[in-house]
């Protein structure tokens, strides 16, 4: 069963386009990544799903129910974490979380304690006195305390240190194993790769592609940059799978896709001064994978 | 109910402060009454030099000062000014809170309809104002009984006192409407003061010119205390007008609040 079903969703802000004709679906139990650069329409899509904004045309449904008409009912089973969290400053963390819990007709006190312990969050502090990262933790607890069936995360990792990110991802994986579906929006490819099963790529308000992470990984280019002691003939690297070959003095750079071993042997035979092999960042993925297609 | 209590708690301190302010204010005013009523003649002489228009715009008729109701009618303008600031601040504040504190993403992703949210908020504001008025009426009545020189017409006194509640309801509704129309409210007080003083100035203008048409434009004139004393009751036209203003403002607030897009911060 599809947990999220988006059909031809369009949102115009006056004359400027927010998103246009976005369609995709998220299956039950899936961790679905939603990736694109800033301003691509990720938040617009998510906010429409949460009926925070209303679509110009198209429709969206969650748990088989229309997002606009049945919003309160749907939201009982949704946990949401925005990229920037803001709460009532003069409340204590525990009061805020209890207030949040009071919207769901179940006892969440045990879960609040458990999550706070995991996230190392001091419940007695005032929201106002918390650092950005700690406010984020409040957001995480707040989003998960009612054990929602669908977790919607809009660029959730900003402000979390790597250790907390780790814990947070573990929590998400546990929730997922318990049956929760997760929609995870991000502009950082690595975190989507780490967590998600499938990913939708959005650019300038339109959905470019929905793909399995495994497929995306197969297609993944590596960025090579080699600095040699002496100038060499770039034709050494004119092999299949090599693209964007560039030479600047003693530095050769190119993108490579395929079996790494032959190319490494080739490099080994050179008098190498320095070597960089990097994952292309999202920007480059867009450039090299999708420019032709769009 | 959780949202209602949350809002009540959030407004607790400011409501208490406003209530105490109004109670102290009316007590101070009434404590001056004995002096005023004794000195009416010398006061009259002192004021002879003042321009007529000024005295009229301040609703200043010395003869009123000899009776406690007349005195009450005069000071009540300032009570209702304070009350109006409280009510419009409350209306603007309570509905713009999610924008100001950027908590819309928290509250509006909870399993409640926006209708429930705005209803809870308005009920909380209504209750705060009700409590303020109870405090005020207790203080006003007690003080009036202490300082009165003649028997007090309780009915008229109560009718004037409770008109604070009606004026506040109008300003609450107007404030709520303002909060839903103006999309980016960062701070409440400038807006609420602007609204209140706009109407207060119109009201002073209406008093000084005696222009009856202007009276329709400002809630401060809908329950004019001197007319209440004169007619021994409210002016039905203005009562109806109040109801219409409140109903329209609230309806528009609901419609706008339900329809607006909540953008990311």
UniProtKB/TrEMBL annotation, chain A:
Any one GO molecular-function label of the UniProt entry: ATP binding
**CDD domains named in the record:** ABC_DR_subfamily_A
Gene3D superfamilies in the record: P-loop containing nucleotide triphosphate hydrolases (3.40.50.300)
Instruction: Outline the extent of the ABC transporter domain.
Output: 4-229
InterPro entries (UniProt xref): AAA+_ATPase (IPR003593), ABC_transporter-like_ATP-bd (IPR003439), ABC_transporter-like_CS (IPR017871), ABC_transporter_ATP-binding (IPR050763), P-loop_NTPase (IPR027417)
- Keywords linked to the UniProt accession: ATP-binding, Nucleotide-binding, Transport
Q: Pfam families under this entry?
A: ABC_tran
Regarding protein family, the annotation reads: Belongs to the ABC transporter superfamily.
Protein name in UniProt: ABC-2 type transport system ATP-binding protein
Protein source organism:
Aquibacillus albus
From TrEMBL, chain B:
Q: What is this protein called?
A: ABC-2 type transport system permease protein
The scientific name of the source species is Aquibacillus albus
Q: Name one Pfam family in it.
A: ABC2_membrane_2
Question: Which residue ranges run through the membrane?
Answer: 71-96, 117-144, 156-181, 188-206, 236-257
Q: Does the keyword Acyltransferase apply?
A: no
**Coiled-coil portions:** none
Q: Give the taxonomic lineage as stored in the record.
A: Bacteria, Bacillati, Bacillota, Bacilli, Bacillales
List UniProt keywords, sorted A-Z: Membrane, Transmembrane, Transmembrane helix
């Amino acid at each position: 069963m599809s947990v999220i079903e988006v059909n031809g969703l369009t949102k115009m802000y006056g004359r400027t386009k927010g998103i246009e004709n976005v369609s995709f679906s998220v299956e039950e139990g899936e961790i679905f990544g939603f990736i694109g650069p800033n301003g691509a329409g990720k938040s617009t899509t998510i906010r429409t799903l949460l009926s925070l904004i209303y679509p110009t045309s198209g429709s969206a449904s969650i748990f088989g129910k229309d997002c606009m008409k049945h919003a309160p009912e749907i939201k009982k089973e949704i946990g949401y974490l925005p990229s920037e969290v803001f709460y009532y400053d003069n409340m204590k963390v525990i009061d805020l979380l209890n207030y949040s819990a009071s919207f769901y007709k179940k006892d969440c006190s045990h879960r609040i304690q458990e999550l706070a312990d995991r996230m190392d969050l001091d419940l007695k502090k005032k929201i106002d006195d918390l650092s950005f990262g700690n406010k984020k933790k409040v957001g995480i607890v707040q989003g998960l305390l009612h054990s929602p069936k669908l977790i919607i995360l809009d660029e959730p990792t900003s402000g979390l240190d790597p250790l907390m990110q780790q814990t947070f991802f573990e929590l998400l994986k546990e929730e997922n194993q318990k049956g929760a579906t997760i929609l995870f929006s991000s502009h950082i490819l690595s975190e989507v790769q780490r967590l998600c099963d499938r990913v939708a790529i959005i650019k300038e308000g339109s959905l470019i592609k929905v793909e399995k992470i495994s497929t995306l990984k197969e297609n993944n280019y590596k960025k090579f940059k080699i600095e040699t002691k002496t100038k060499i003939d770039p034709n050494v690297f004119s092999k299949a799978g090599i693209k964007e070959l560039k030479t600047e003095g003693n530095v050769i750079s190119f993108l490579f896709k395929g079996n790494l071993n032959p190319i490494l042997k080739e490099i080994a035979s050179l008098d190498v001064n320095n070597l960089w092999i990097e994952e292309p960042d999202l920007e480059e993925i867009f450039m090299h994978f999708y420019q032709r297609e769009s | 109910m959780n949202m209602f209590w949350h809002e009540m708690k959030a407004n607790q301190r400011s409501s208490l402060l406003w209530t105490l302010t109004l109670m102290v204010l009316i007590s101070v005013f009434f404590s001056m009454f004995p002096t005023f009523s004794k000195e009416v003649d010398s006061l009259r002489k002192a004021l002879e030099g003042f321009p007529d228009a000024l005295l009229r715009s301040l609703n200043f008729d010395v003869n009123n000062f000899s009776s406690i109701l007349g005195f009450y009618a005069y000071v009540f303008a300032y009570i209702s000014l304070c009350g109006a600031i409280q009510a419009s601040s409350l209306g603007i504040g309570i509905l713009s809170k999610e924008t100001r504190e950027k908590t819309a993403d928290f509250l509006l992703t909870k399993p409640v309809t926006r209708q429930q949210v705005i209803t809870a908020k308005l009920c909380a504001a209504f209750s705060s104002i009700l409590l303020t008025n109870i405090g005020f009426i207790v203080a006003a009545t007690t003080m009036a009984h202490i300082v009165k020189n003649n028997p007090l017409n309780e009915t008229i006194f109560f009718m004037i006192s409770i008109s604070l509640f009606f004026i506040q309801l109008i300003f609450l509704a107007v404030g709520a409407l303002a909060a839903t129309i103006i999309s980016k409210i960062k701070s409440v007080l400038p807006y609420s003061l602007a609204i209140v003083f706009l109407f207060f100035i119109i009201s002073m203008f209406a008093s000084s010119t005696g222009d009856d048409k202007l009276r329709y434009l400002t809630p401060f004139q809908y329950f004019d205390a001197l007319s209440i004393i004169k007619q021994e009751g409210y002016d039905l036209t203005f009562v109806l007008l109040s109801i219409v203003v409140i109903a329209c403002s609230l309806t528009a607030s609901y419609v706008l609040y339900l329809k607006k897009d909540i953008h990311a911060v």
